[in-house]
Amino acid sequence: MQIYWTKINKIIDETSEVKTYLLDCPEGFTWEEGSHTHFALKGFNAGEKPNRGLIRHMSISTLPNENSIGITTRIRKIGSEFKMTLRNHKVGDEVALFKTHSNVPLKREDNNVYLLSSGVGLATFRPLVLDYFERADNVNQIHSLNIDSSKDFLFPDIFESAPDKKFTSQFVDNRKDYYDEVKNLTADKDGLFYIVGSDEFLVQNIAVLREQGIKPEQIMLDKRERQLPDFLSFELTN
Fold it and tell me: Which InterPro entries match (predicted)?
């Protein structure tokens, strides 16, 4: 396993609780839209066994042509060892990346694409939307639906409806409106539905989609292939 050590080159306060850490691109490090990586802090491999408290599985919120690796995460005043350690990191501090992989690249199969996310999960979709803006080939249109009760929405400069680009963006602040809208979107029986959020959020969305006739192969999750059956084997009841 190759570990890429790199430095923080910029820290952006996206909202009152969400920060993006922009990292230098180490030589040989590659990724594509929809990628995630293991993001580790100094000391994680200092002992005989890795300190998992200093490692997190994170989405990369930038595209390679932005020349920085973006890690966007919510950091509250009180949190885990990882978040509290990261909170004290400054520009120039070293961090590590390893096991980078993409489970949710943008599929170009002449379908409508629906991006369903909760809160900071929007960071996973940022590069997909930018990739679509740069090259819309074989994607009919994209609709983003995000639930965030803070009303302090992420990336407002990107997640803003742009009819000329066949992109619509919608934010809701409560679960009822969110799931009502998900049901409305399932009127498109050929659409591709990407979901990013907690495991509970994934399960709830899959249940709604499946009950409305959406097939498992139309549902894209940021999970390894071996994990997909655990989520997509939803049993429809009569």
Answer: FNR_nucleotide-bd, Riboflavin_synthase-like_b-brl
CATH ID of 111-232, from 3.40.50.80, 2.30.39.10, 3.40.50.2300, 3.40.50.300 = 3.40.50.80
SS3 category, 194 = strand
Contact status, residue 29 vs residue 14, Cβ threshold 8 Å: no
Which residue stretches of 31-149 are H helix? Answer: 81-87, 122-134
- Tell me the two tokens of residue 15: 């909202």
| Residues ≥6 apart with Cβ < 8 Å to 117 | 124, 125, 144, 145, 146, 147, 195, 196, 197
Q: Please determine, for residue 238, whether its predicted confidence score (pLDDT) is greater than 50.
A: no
Burial letters 33-60, b for 16+ CB under 10 A, else e: bbbbbbbbbeebeeeeeeeeebbbebbb
What is the total residue count of the chain? Answer: 238
∠ CA 180-199-98, nearest 5°, is 130
Residue-wise pLDDT tens digits, 82-130: 999 999 999 999 999 999 988 888 999 999 999 999 989 999 999 999 9
Neighbours of 133 (CB within 10 A): 13
- CATH number of the domain located at residue range(s) 4-102 in this protein: 2.40.30.10
Domain ranges of the chain: 4-102, 111-232
Q: What is the side-by-side strand order in the sheet with 18-23?
A: 55-59, 35-41, 94-102, 4-13, 18-23, 69-74
Instruction: Calculate mean pLDDT across residues 197-204.
Output: 90
Find, among 116, 110, 114, 158, the residue nearest to 134 by Cα: 158
